[in-house]
Amino acid sequence: MATQARTDAKRGLDPLKVREDFPIFQRKIHGKPLIYLDNAATTQRPRPVIEALERFYTRMNANVHRAVHTLSHEASVAYEEAHKKVARFINARSWREIIFTRNATEALNLVMYGWGLWELEEGDEIVLTIMEHHSNLVPWMLLRERRGVVLKFIDVDEQGRLKLDEFKRLLSPRTKLVGVIHASNVLGTINPLPEIVEAAHRVGARVVVDAAQSAPHLPLDVRALDCDFLAASGHKMLGPTGTGFLYGKRELLERMEPFLRGGDMISSVTLEGATWNELPWKFEAGTPSIADGIALGVAVDYLMDLGLENVYAHERRLLEYALERLLKLEGVVVYGPHDPEDRLGVISFNVEGVHPHDLASVLDEEGIAVRSGHHCAQPLMRRLGMDNTARASFYIYNTEDEVDRLIEGIQRAKRLFRV
Ligand code: C6P
């Protein structure tokens, strides 16, 4: 992949060059150039990812692991290779620690059904943060209902940073799991994982990290972090929709029960019972999304070619610029930490007197895509006294010029609603 021109040793990532790889930016919305600021929901796809999907169906289409014929062999090798790429991306010890799922939600459910349901008993405690996305909250409620497991929550301060002292007080020998969102999809807050993992391990608890919002934006190293599980969405990091993955420490995955049972995940079956296939296939029952998985590997190649340090640095510049401009606007409330060091380029905000859905509609007329709503984090929204927000989230193809257009769009909405 000739990405040399997309980054520069001095200036870092060049978003204008990056944009050339994304066919969707040729599209006009209401006659205006598309300004896509809904990257926390899902990102756009570069041409190599789109081409990988086409290449699979035109050159290689076959099922994996089932036949000796050439197409099946090629598809199996390419699908396995995609797991290896994801393993390198997060620095896992082995590609067998990477399980492909449909999304981050499925990855987190896999931990609950495959580990929690078997390991946890009445009175055991799970400590979660109040800023969890519903995907790392609602699954654990099942264990509260069915097993009598106790859920405890770490609160946040007014800027949406975790109260770490409180976290340490919540930990006890009864804590069996700590579930933590790495970066909030509402506030952008980056949580201090090393400190959290170390404190959790000190009381013998396992740690599951929801990295859906961090994996696409900053370098991750599961070995250094020493977390036990980590879930992410492939579709939030340039991969196809219907892709996500779970990392788990091998010794845990080996001991865990499969979540879905049936085809492809067995080693042998008799009428009396079954034994399980080797990792990761034990957890990938049935025909997987082969083309999508292979294309996720290509997305990882693309990101690694750019360099995650460059991705982070670019978004940091945009974040600082956008925060500076938004904070100067009268009647605009910006949520989350004020210090860019503590957060990523996900900015939730409200304009006094304009409902976020109305704001998003006005921005859409300008070709600007932002999300509005509760962002699947209702307990956090309630805690911070808000129902809905507008949210702009950046990625590798966004520019400062687009931030200016966003500000102009907000000013237009204020004029329209006379606020
Ligand atoms: N957030 C948003 O904020 P899926 O859709 O299952 O791949 O990802 C779920 C998920 C889990 N954790 C976090 C931190 C997330 O942000 C998300 C998805 C999207 O717009 C959709 S609610």
Describe this structure in words.
- The chain is an alpha/beta fold and 419 residues long.
- It has two domains: 142 residues, Aspartate Aminotransferase, domain 1; 255 residues, Type I PLP-dependent aspartate aminotransferase-like (Major domain) (Aspartate Aminotransferase, domain 2, 3-Layer(aba) Sandwich), CATH 3.40.640.
- The protein is 39% helix and 18% strand.
- The chain contains 14 helices and 19 strands.
- It has a seven-stranded mixed β-sheet, sandwiched between helices. A four-stranded antiparallel β-sheet has the order 15-16-19-18, covered by helices on one side.
- Helix 5 links the parallel strand 7 and strand 8.
- Helix 11 packs parallel to helix 14.
- It is globular.
- The N and C termini lie far apart (49 Å).
- The site of ligand C6P has 17 residues, from helix 4.
Summary of the model, kept short:
The chain is α/β, with parallel strands linked by helices and 419 residues long. Helices cover 39% and strands 18% of the residues. The longest helix is centred in the C-terminal third of the chain and has 21 residues, at 308-328.
Uncertain regions: pLDDT < 50 for 5+ in a row?
Answer: none
Structural class: alpha/beta
What share of the residues lie within helices? 25-40%
Q: How much strand?
A: 15-25%
